[in-house]
Amino acid sequence: MTKIAKARAAFTLVELLVVIAIIGILVALLLPAVQAAREAARRTQCTNQLRQLALAAHNFHDTNGSFPPGLYQMPFGSAPQFRGVTLFVRLLPQMEQGPLYDLWDQTNPLNNTNGGTTSLTATKLNNLLCPSDTIPANPVSGGSGRFYALTSYGGNGGTRSYDPQVATNDGIFWVIGPGSQTDPLGQPVRMPDVLDGTSNVYLFGERSHFDRNHDTFAASLTPSGGAALGPIGGTGWWAASTGRLAAGEVLLSSFAPLNFKVPAPFSLGGTMTPPATNFAGYQYYNDRRISAFGSNHPGGANFALADGSVRFTSNQISFLMYQRLTMRADGQVVD
To answer: How many domains does the chain have?
Structure first.
């Protein structure tokens, strides 16, 4: 007698393809949600770090009667080699970095670069780094065997902080001291100097370390005197100690719109307005990019205000309102 084999239950090819398609759709839906959740966590961490930075500045003010200068710069020699102490160095004790501050040579700040990658200036401070910021290397070489660690944040330098020889000094921080090119006899800002109200003026904001177009100019242009351009990922030394342009490492401004990026690569520099086909022509864009607030958070950037609060500013903010938020005493109402 012939036995009839029972048919085994199994997926058909069509059913298998349907299951794979459904899994693919679920993954495609889930991935953006996971990425959004991670970015929300990073943005929250960045917000907390800015709040702690603002608190450090307030504690400094309580102790010293003013905020720290953006950069206290002193010239050395008959042909000055500018050397200075940044606002972040001054805030080290308030950021629980008292032992590092105690080691700092404030008489000749260049001595703090001794030791290469193990120098004081190469010390990486995680609370000065936004988790969403893209930084290729940290610390970075500053030439001549000196290394500097980076920060994702900058002090509010007003409506123009770079080039420091034409800085407007209308924010909270700028360059003072004998080596200052705009205000050698200047004094640090005090709370009463913030006439527009501390809730209407930025104290600190973010810096973006990503700009491929800028990097093509930095790699292609040869300076006609002065310092060579560097990639944007190597800008923002929290303990910049030397050089006339050191203010560009720690100060940001509203000289360009929020999250300003260079509009085209070097190969298309002639199509930009104004055109940028050589080193001199690119200075228009370089000065704006070096001093621009920005971030890798979608849609805008975090800012700490002078009252200690932290707010997210959208890229869609009007340029006029944005500039008003960087001026401490312009007398205009901020809505």
So the answer is: 1
